[in-house]
Amino acid sequence: MNPTVGIAVILTVLQAAHCQMIKDLSACLLGQNLRVDCRYENKTDNPLTYEFSITKDNRKHVIHSTISVSENIYRSRANVTMHKNLVCLYLQSFTTSDEGIYMCELKATNDYTGNQVKNITVIKDKLEKCAGFSLLIQNTSWLLLLLLSLPLLQAVDFVSL
């Protein structure tokens, strides 16, 4: 094997090991706004690009993106925040006309394995309200949360009726 080809193959395999993996996609209502959380496993320091879109009536509509151009009807209503291993889409004034299949697409720069994509069906009447401390829960292990809540549980006097 040609040494140059061998190095190219090794670099390609190593780069494939650095892809972003979407772990979870969830949606909830925050007042009258929709929040879509796209959690991913970060395997590289390369810059991350994203795209949130909705498919309805068999047509894809880009809501907010660093990959392509967002559609006008969503541009003024959509906002995205990025936290450690979490990209959040906020869509203001969410109504039943905004229902559909929401997609989160992530790609790390120089990642040759392709984009990571996950879908979730969003129906307004079936959405739960976002928890006030959900970001804390998302970034804290359940065991630590349980340990921190034990003194509260011990202080509660359970009375049987």
TrEMBL record:
Keyword Membrane among record annotations: yes
Q: Which UniProt keywords apply?
A: Cell membrane, Disulfide bond, Glycoprotein, GPI-anchor, Immunoglobulin domain, Lipoprotein, Membrane, Pyrrolidone carboxylic acid, Signal
**Cell location:** Cell membrane
Show the InterPro entries listed in the entry.
Answer: Ig-like_dom_sf, Ig-like_fold, Ig_V-set, THY1
Topology in membrane: Lipid-anchor; GPI-anchor
Chain ranges of the Immunoglobulin V-set domain = 33-106
Q: Which GO terms describe its cellular component?
A: dendrite; external side of plasma membrane; focal adhesion; membrane raft; myelin sheath
Where mainly located?
Answer: membrane
Which residues belong to the signal peptide in this entry? 1-19
The source's domain of life comes to Eukaryota
GO terms assigned for molecular function:
GTPase activator activity; integrin binding
Identify the SMART domains for this entry.
Answer: IGv
Query: Mind listing the GO biological process terms from this record?
Result: cell adhesion; integrin-mediated signaling pathway; positive regulation of focal adhesion assembly; regulation of cell migration
Which is an annotated Pfam family here?
Answer: V-set
Role according to the record: May play a role in cell-cell or cell-ligand interactions during synaptogenesis and other events in the brain.
User: What protein is this chain from?
Assistant: Thy-1 membrane glycoprotein
Q: Which organism is it from?
A: Oriolus oriolus (Eurasian golden oriole)
Gene it is expressed from: Thy1
